[in-house]
Design brief:
It is a single chain. This protein has 349 residues and is an alpha/beta fold. It has a 9-stranded mixed sheet with strand order 14-13-12-11-7-10-9-8-15. The protein has a 6-stranded parallel sheet with strand order 3-2-1-4-5-6, sandwiched between helices. α4 packs parallel to α5, α5 packs antiparallel against α10 and α7 crosses α10. It starts with a strand and ends with a strand. The model has no long low-confidence stretch (mean pLDDT 95).
């Protein structure tokens, strides 16, 4: 079977990750890179593929069947729509767009062209999350009751040398928390309402450095999330799941999902429940048991690339469709709105 001809638009940090995955994948063939920087030209030369100063030239000359869009958020919508209209399926980095209006435009373009859009919420492709999804889907937890998520760590001072990271939209809500909200949606379903508080008390920048969030899911479960990039703490997915080698991995949990029949921790995949052979448990006086599943480690980005190829070929359904990515963006923007207004924000069904 021939490999899927794929191009990458944007050769920054995340773009280089996608380029490396494409070069190592047995399912795709990297046929071009679009990025105007000299570093991108050097990267393309080393990979043996042409480099274009803009994505329009790439689409016209290479005519890929699929593209990865790894450019700044504000450009996602126009580039994705142009690629779809030129006949290329798209893997667009998260968030799907910087506004709900642009996210909806992408969804409409995907419907109109009949071409798939996969949104790059890569954590869904981690074997840990696949097992967690299976556990929750099997009813092991019973009826979902609560989710408690921590997203706390310390960003170094030089991280904020880039001006947009000190301004509204550049803080941990839209940059980091969106991942955790996506995982909560992935396991518990749609979110009905959001309340939040945000603070910039530590650094004093225009953007928040800490936020506390309360979520109500459509199934009746409640979720709480604390996010902060200014605290000396290990409780976050990046440090605990080991997805990126640049972070020192910590053998701890950061997500806790509880139901009427059991509870689940992530990323350690511990299931807590009363043993079946004990008969009917009365409650907290009875002993709980814990079973832990050890899964094989794998790069979620590599698995995402494999899935993207299978999606384009029609062999698999999207793990995170354009509509799915839009709903995660919707819930995340609702956090910012709720924190700014002090009121609950209800999400459309």
């Amino acid at each position: 079977m021939s490999k899927l001809r794929i191009a990458v638009i944007g050769a920054g940090l995340i773009g280089r990750t996608h380029i490396d995955c494409a070069l190592q994948s047995p399912d795709v063939e990297l046929v071009g890179i679009a990025d105007p920087t000299p570093a991108a030209a050097e990267l393309a030369a080393a990979a043996g593929v042409p480099c274009f100063p803009d994505y329009q030239s790439l689409l016209a000359q290479v005519k890929p069947r699929a593209v990865v869009v790894a450019t700044p958020n504000v450009t996602h919508a126009q580039i994705t729509i142009d690629c779809l209209e030129q006949g290329a399926a798209v893997l667009v980095e998260k968030p799907i767009a910087d506004t709900l209006e642009d996210g909806r435009r992408i969804c409409e373009a995907s419907r109109a062209t009949g071409l798939p859009v996969l949104v790059g919420h890569q954590r869904r492709h981690n074997p840990i999350m696949r097992k967690a999804k299976a556990i929750v889907g099997a009813g092991t937890l019973g009826r979902p009751v609560s989710a408690t998520v921590l997203c706390t760590w310390l960003k170094p001072r030089d991280y904020f040398d880039v001006a947009w990271r000190r301004q509204q939209g550049g803080g941990p809500i839209l940059i980091n928390l969106i991942h955790d909200i996506d995982l909560m949606r992935h396991l518990y379903g749609e979110i009905e309402g959001v309340q939040a508080l945000a603070s910039n008390a530590v650094r004093g920048f225009d953007v928040e450095d800490t936020a506390a969030v309360l979520l109500r899911f459509c199934n009746g479960a409640l979720g709480t999330v604390t996010v902060s990039d200014t605290t000396a703490a290990p409780w976050n997915w990046d440090l605990s799941a080991g997805e990126a080698e640049r972070f020192p991995r910590q053998d701890i949990n950061a997500h806790f999902y509880s139901g009427t029949e059991g509870s689940l921790t992530l990323p350690r995949l511990e299931v807590w429940r009363y043993r079946q052979d004990q008969g009917a448990a009365e409650g907290w006086h009875d002993p709980l048991t814990m079973e832990r599943t050890a899964v094989h480690t794998a790069s979620p980005y590599s698995e995402q690339m494999r899935h993207f190829a299978a999606l384009v070929e029609g062999r698999e359904e999207p793990v995170c469709s354009a509509l799915d990515g839009l709903r995660t963006l919707e819930a995340t923007l609702a956090v910012t709105q709720a924190a700014a207004t002090g009121s609950q924000v209800l999400l459309p069904r």
